[in-house]
Amino acid sequence: MALSLLKRGIFLALVWLALTGEGGLAAALEPEALAFGLPSVMAALWLSLRLSPPLRPWRIWRALRLLPGFVAGSVAGGIDVARRALQRRPAVRSGWLTHRSHLSPPGRVVLGGALSLMPGTLAAGCHKGRLLVHVIDREGGFETAAGREEARLAPLAGGEDETASTGGGA
Amino acid sequence: MIAEFLRDGLSVAFTALGLFFFAAGSLGLLRFPDVFSRLHALTKADNLGLGFLALGLMFQAPGWAVVAKLALIWALALLAAGTVAQLVARAALMKGERR
Predict the structure, then answer these.
(1) ipTM metric
(2) How far off is chain B from A96, nearest CA to CA, in Å?
(3) A positions 59-78 inside 8 Å of B (CB)
(4) CA A41 → CA A25, A34, A46, B35, B61, distances in Å?
(5) Bridge pairing between strands A130-135 and A121-127
(6) Is B45–A134 a contact, with Cβ atoms under 8 angstroms apart?
(7) Average of pLDDT values for B47-73?
(8) Closest to A93 measured CA to CA, from A146, A144, A149, A141
(9) Residues facing A127 on adjacent strands
(10) Confidence at B45, pLDDT banded by 50, 70, 90
(11) Which comes out higher in pLDDT, residue B57 or B2?
C-alpha cells in the first residue's frame, strides 16, 4: 500500500512537472511553485486512490519493456490501415472473431484498447467472457492477433495463473 | 547552424508524416463501408499521425518539460483512442450494426 502510494505520488509529481516545469527544475522547486504543485499532486493522488484503489502493484518496468513492441505494432497498424484507405478500392473485408480471454475484466479493457491500435483488429467489448474482435480483412491473417496480444500483456496482470495464453478462434 | 538545420529538417519530415497519416485516417473514415472499419481508420491512423506530429514538434521544444508534455499528450490521446474505439464499437454492435 505504502509503496503503491509512493509510486503514484512520484508519477503524478512527474506529470505536474511536465505540465508546468517549463522554467526548469529549480524554478519548479521554488516555494511559490510548490505552493501550487504540492496541493495539486496531493489532490490528484487522493482522486486516483478513490477512483482506482491499488488492488495490484503497478508493474512499471514490465510495462516499459512492452513499450517498443507496442509502438512497433501501432506504427504497423497505422501503415496497414492507411494503405487500405488509399487503395483504389478500399481493401476492407469486414469480419468478426471471438477470443476467450483469461485476463481480469480491467485486463480485458487494456487488451481491447491495445488490440484496437494493432494492425487489423478492433475490440468491441466482451460477451460471455469472450472478447469480440472485429477484423478489417477476413483474409488478412489477423486470427492469431488477439492471442498474441494477450500473451504479451499477461506479465502485467501478474497472477501466476494468468500467464497462460490462448489462440483466437472463429 | 548545421544542428539547427537538421532539427528543422526532422521537424518538417515528421510533421509531414503526421499530416499524411491524419489525411489517410480521414480518407478511411470517408471511404470505408461500415462503422467498424471506419473506427479502424480513425483510431490507428490518427494515433500514428498524432505521434509523428508530436515527435516533429519535440525537435522545436525549448526544454525537456515541453518534450515530456508532448509525450504526455500523445499517451493520453492513445489511451482515449483505445478506450473510445471499444465503446463506439460496442455501442454500434448493440444497435445492430452487424457488418
Answers:
(1) 0.88
(2) 8
(3) 74-75, 77-78
(4) 16, 10, 9, 40, 25
(5) antiparallel
(6) no
(7) 92
(8) A141
(9) A130
(10) very high
(11) B57
